[in-house]
Amino acid sequence: MNVSPVNFKALAYVLDVEGFDSAAALHRCGFGAVDALDDHGPWLPARQLGDLMAAAVDVTRDPCFGLVAGKSKGLMRHVTLMQVTLVAPTLRQVIDDICRFAPLYLERSEVELCVGADAAEIAVSPVVSLGVGGRFRTELVATSAAQMVRFARGAAEDILAVDMPHACPPGQAARYAATFGPQVRFGCDRCAVAFNPRLLDVPLQTHDPGAYAAARRVAEAALAAHGPAPRIAERVRQWLLSVMPRQPSLQEAAARFRLSERSLRRQLSASGVTYLGLTQQCHRSVAEHLLARRDLSIQQVADRLGFASVASFHRAFRRWTGLTPVTWRDAPLSGARRTHSGEAP
User: Fold this and answer.
1) What is the residue-level pLDDT of the chain in tens, covering all 345 positions?
2) β-strand pairing of 191-195 with 159-163
3) Distance, CA of 86 to CA of 214 (rounded, Å)
4) Is the pTM of this model over 0.85?
5) In angstroms, how far is the first alpha carbon of the chain from the final one?
6) Do 169 and 296 reside in the same domain of the chain?
7) Coil, strand or helix at 149
8) Residue 251, CA distances (Å) to 165, 192, 239, 256 in order
9) Same domain, 182 and 241
10) CA-based radius of gyration for the chain
11) Residue 191, CB-side half-sphere exposure with 13 Å CA sphere
């Protein structure tokens, strides 16, 4: 996974704003001056961001610096997103906008809103999850989520639970309680901030309809100009093709991409596909590739695709293409095969 250079610059600004030497952290990770990082330059591997976050912990000598970073004004470096969220009408819209415009900075959103009858939850899935950098990123995103809840005029009791996947560093429990409240829990299987769902639609005092509409137009234009980051549909497609003929379940795919099943379904839907449809597309693609090989019999193709019989392969292939495997193989590209494959004649 890759991330925008803006994330590196934002972390450097956080260090500077909080009174630390950002140049020292950047140098440890092989970067020069922060100004050498181009906002519109090539995206960098997320592991390098993890290295920089680990360096930030070293430079500050603070094992919980992620808690500081999550509240720092240095994050204003994400200018386009901040301009939208600061004047949004409700907390629900803030979270929607974060998910919508995350591709300006990341390949996917690190937060997902889940709403139940008794609690709403911001599930946190950081782009870096392992090691010191992973703990830093988890703390940063979770702290930002808690700040959003408080921004919606939430009282201390409105944060119902905060789950953290790592252990509490020795002697730091009071800092976590000061950030999240006494209901923080450690050693959980994921990170999430649960809160009173009534806060989702409370009007935010900073909402400015005109400024919000203008900021959204700027953000949408930036998103269009940025072009799509590698979309989840394409990443899932490439993975499915790599494991064919095995057909992983939606649950396995969600775990593979560190998403909930609901989030994966939603992101695929935004790309205009379903998981079942994507699986069938990949199955068909592999089938056509194998059928194009004249050295393989129809039986061998069916076997390689994992079908129990040639008859079941025939039924599936006819459903995909409107042709039988034999007809598809014998049809010239200028004729039926091209037409039924959706190509222009």
Assistant:
1) 788 889 998 999 999 999 998 998 998 888 876 666 777 778 888 889 999 999 999 999 999 999 999 998 877 767 788 889 999 999 999 999 998 888 888 888 899 998 887 899 999 999 988 899 999 999 999 999 999 998 888 777 889 999 999 999 999 999 999 999 889 999 999 999 999 999 999 999 999 999 999 999 998 888 877 765 556 787 888 788 888 888 899 999 988 887 888 888 888 887 778 899 889 888 888 888 888 877 889 999 999 888 999 999 999 898 888 888 988 888 654 334 443 444 333
2) antiparallel
3) 12
4) no
5) 38
6) no
7) helix
8) 20, 19, 14, 9
9) no
10) 24
11) 28
Directed axis angle between helix 310-321 and helix 275-291, to 10°?
110
Return the CATH number at 243: 1.10.10.60
Number of domains in the chain: 2
Residue 241 lies in a domain: yes
Q: Which residues pair with 44 in a beta bridge?
A: 3
How far is Cα 17 from Cα 74, in angstroms, rounded to an integer? 6
Q: What DSSP string describes 219-274?
A: HHHHHHHH---S-HHHHHHHHHHHHTT----HHHHHHHTT--HHHHHHHHHHTT--
Residue 251: alpha-carbon gap to chain centroid: 16
Q: Same domain for 16 and 160?
A: yes
Residue 210 covered by a domain: no
Instruction: Give the range of the structural domain holding residue 252, as residue numbers without chain letter.
Output: 232-340
Are 254 and 263 spatial neighbours (Cβ–Cβ below 8 Å)?
yes
- If phi > 0 it is left, if psi is from -120 to 50 it is alpha, else beta; for residue 342 that is left
CA pair distance 162, 142, nearest whole angstrom:
8
Strand partners, 191: 124
Burial class (CB in 10 A: 0-12, 13-18, 19+), 5: buried
Q: Is residue 306 part of a domain?
A: yes
Q: Are residues 59 and 157 in the same domain?
A: yes
175 in the same domain as 81: yes
Alpha carbon of residue 171 to chain centroid:
32
Confirm whether 85 is domain-assigned. Answer: yes
62 with 149, same domain: the answer is yes
* CATH, residue 6: 3.90.1520.10
Tokens of 227: 């072009």
